[in-house]
């Protein structure tokens, strides 16, 4: 089952009673520490990832992601690098309108 098949964890990110972090001891094996690091996801990251899952397989710019989530562009953009480092998203370059409407080369994102 892939991330797009079961993203109930994204829904849980909006539940204030659900933990948003996982921990590993320094003595735990490397895979355990890496798994704990991947679980450290903010609620804003979860909103962005949900928008990308809903749009899959389309590529979205941060302008489109901001529109889809209702977040500001300045709140959306900083969420992309952590999601990429955790392996949840992939990126490509496309020509698209920026926030002022000018056509420019932009990074587009989609869920893996």
Helix content: 40-55%
Instruction: Assign an overall shape.
Output: elongated
What strand line-up does the widest sheet have? 1-2
Largest sheet: 2 strands, antiparallel
Uncertain regions spanning at least 5 consecutive residues: none
Q: Can you tell me the CATH superfamily?
A: Winged helix-like DNA-binding domain superfamily/Winged helix DNA-binding domain
| Main structural class | alpha+beta
Report the sheet-strand fraction: 15-25%
In the CATH scheme, the class would be Mainly Alpha
Give the topology string: H per helix, E per strand: HHHHHHEE
N-C termini distance: 13 Å
| Estimated radius of gyration | 15 Å
Number of strands: 2
Rounded average pLDDT: 80
- What is the count of distinct domains? 1
CATH topology: Arc Repressor Mutant, subunit A
Level-2 CATH architecture: Orthogonal Bundle
How many separate helices? Answer: 6
